[in-house]
Design goal:
Layout: H1 5-9, H2 13-39, H3 48-58, H4 64-78, H5 82-106, H6 115-137, H7 146-162
Length: 166
C-alpha cells in the first residue's frame, strides 16, 4: 500500500488498533455464533469436548492463526488501554461461555454438579485452551490433532473435579 493509506482511514495508531480489535471481535462473534448453530447438528460433531477440541484446532490454520496472533498482540496492549480491553471483552466472554457449556455437558446426564465446580473446571479449561492456542501462535504446536486435544481437555476437566475438596 502507498505510504499514508492507513493514516487516511485511521489518524492515530490508537485508532488503527481499536479498529483492528473491533474487527477481530466481530469475526470471533460471527464464528462463535456459527459454531453454536453447528452444535445443534450432531452430524457436525461440534459438541462436548470433542467439538471444543475441533474448534481450537482451527486456530492452527489460516485465517484463524493470523487472527489469533492479532488477538494476542491486542490483548497485551489492552492491559494498558481500558477502551481496547472493553472491545475484546465480548469475544473473551463468548469463549468462556463456550468452555463453561462444554464442562456442563461433560458431566453425566442427570447429575447436577455444583456451580463452583463447573466454574473452576471452565476456568481451567479456558486457561488450558489459551495455552494451546499460544503454542500455535508461537509456531510450536503442543498438539497436532483434535482427538489428542480432546483427551487432554477431558483430563483437565476430570483433574479439577478430582482435586476439589469434599
Amino acid at each position: 500500500m502507498p505510504a499514508g493509506t492507513a493514516s487516511f482511514y485511521f489518524r492515530t495508531r490508537k485508532a488503527l488498533l481499536h479498529a483492528a480489535a473491533a474487527r477481530v471481535a466481530e469475526l470471533d462473534v460471527a464464528d462463535f455464533s456459527r459454531m453454536a448453530e453447528l452444535a445443534g447438528d450432531p452430524a457436525m460433531q461440534f459438541t462436548g469436548t470433542a467439538g471444543l477440541a475441533r474448534i481450537v484446532m482451527y486456530v492452527n490454520s489460516e485465517p484463524w492463526l493470523t487472527r489469533a496472533r492479532a488477538r494476542y498482540e491486542l490483548a497485551l496492549l489492552a492491559g494498558r488501554d481500558a477502551e481496547l480491553a472493553t472491545t475484546l471483552d465480548e469475544s473473551a466472554e463468548r469463549l468462556y461461555t463456550l468452555a463453561r457449556d462444554v464442562v456442563a455437558q461433560w458431566h453425566p446426564d442427570g447429575s447436577a454438579p455444583e456451580p463452583a465446580l463447573v466454574e473452576d473446571q471452565a476456568i481451567a479449561t479456558l486457561a488450558f485452551i489459551n495455552g494451546i492456542m499460544l503454542t500455535f501462535v508461537a509456531g510450536q504446536p503442543a498438539v497436532d490433532n483434535a482427538d489428542h486435544l480432546d483427551r487432554l481437555l477431558q483430563g483437565v476437566i476430570a483433574g479439577v473435579a478430582a482435586v476439589r475438596p469434599d
